[in-house]
Amino acid sequence: MASIMDILKIKPFVEVSVGQLLWGYEDPLLKLAKDVVPKEQKLPYEEFGLFYGKNGTSPDVVTMFSGANDMTTYGIISHYNMREKLQHWTSDQCNSIAGSDGSIFPPHITKNDTLAVYDKDLCRLLPLKFLEEVSLDDSPIMLSFPHFYLAEPSLREAVEGISPPIPEKHRLFIDVQPGIDELPEQVRSLLRLATQVPPLARSALGWGLSALGLLLILLAVTCLIRSSHRQSTLRLEGHVVAKPPPAKTPSKDNGYELNSRR
């Protein structure tokens, strides 16, 4: 034993964290055993820990249909540990895994449907048929926000000791944080520039952008004023443009007179 520990360079006492001691860590001896033991003789534990494998987590890989193409297959098992069927039984019907795991079922189930539930302990599909409707002390099933928020006040008043709901505490809300990666490259470059330049240069850049914006506004207003003095009627080839009355004919100072022709 001492020679093996010398080869693996390990000590009789190891130093690990509390999480590793409780939920498992890779021990050099277990790692050596996995390399020595044949593959068909799998070790019961992959790691060493006081509660390793005891937190209800299943090591099995279960693939289910999402219902994207057919909602009738929603929640139905497609593969179990990368296999489409089991290898334990002599018939395809017994080896079939095309059923639910018991937690979710396809929609629109009726009382005439047979529910197929796969039990991994029995390695079989269990066909379940509707038997009867049951109730527990005639208690209805109700869903509500905390303190019956957005519900009728009579429901809350019927229960003694429930205070009125506070919208800020009992309502449902979702915060959406827009990502910077969705902005154009030019905007991202400006943001990076704004965060990298010194405060003084950042202030100068802000004033410069403000002045540029004001200049563009003045330029746009000037163009609108100048365009208001231009002729609003243009002559096209092959068209006749009515000659305006002499009293309304623009002077040479304001523009040019358009002559009509065919």
Approximate helicity band: 25-40%
Q: Rounded to an integer, what's the Rg over CA atoms?
A: 39 Å
Determine the number of helices (DSSP H or I, runs of at least 4 residues).
8
Alpha-carbon distance between the termini? 114 Å
Number of strands: 4
**Helix-strand category:** alpha+beta
* Average of the residue pLDDT scores: 77
The unreliable regions are 231-241, 249-262
Organism: Spodoptera exigua (Beet armyworm)
Transmembrane segments: 204-225
Keywords: Cell membrane, Disulfide bond, Glycoprotein, Membrane, Receptor, Transmembrane, Transmembrane helix
Subcellular location: Cell membrane; Membrane, Caveola
Structural overview:
It is a multi-pass membrane protein. Residues 250-262 have a biased composition (Basic and acidic residues). Its main location: membrane. Residues 237-262 are annotated as: Disordered. With 262 residues, the chain is of the alpha+beta class. Among the domains are: 1-57, no CATH class; 62-129, no CATH class; 140-175, no CATH class. It is 29% helix and 7% strand. It contains eight helices and four strands; from the N terminus they run αααββαββαααα. The protein has helices at residues 2-8, 18-23, 28-36, 92-95, 153-157, 167-170, 185-196, 199-227, and strands spanning 62-64, 77-80, 114-119, 124-129. The strands form two sheets. Strands 1-2 form a two-stranded antiparallel sheet. Strands 3-4 form a two-stranded antiparallel sheet. Strand 3 and strand 4 form a beta hairpin. The longest helix has 29 residues, at 199-227. It is extended and about 90 Å long. The model is unreliable at 231-241 and 249-262 (pLDDT under 50).
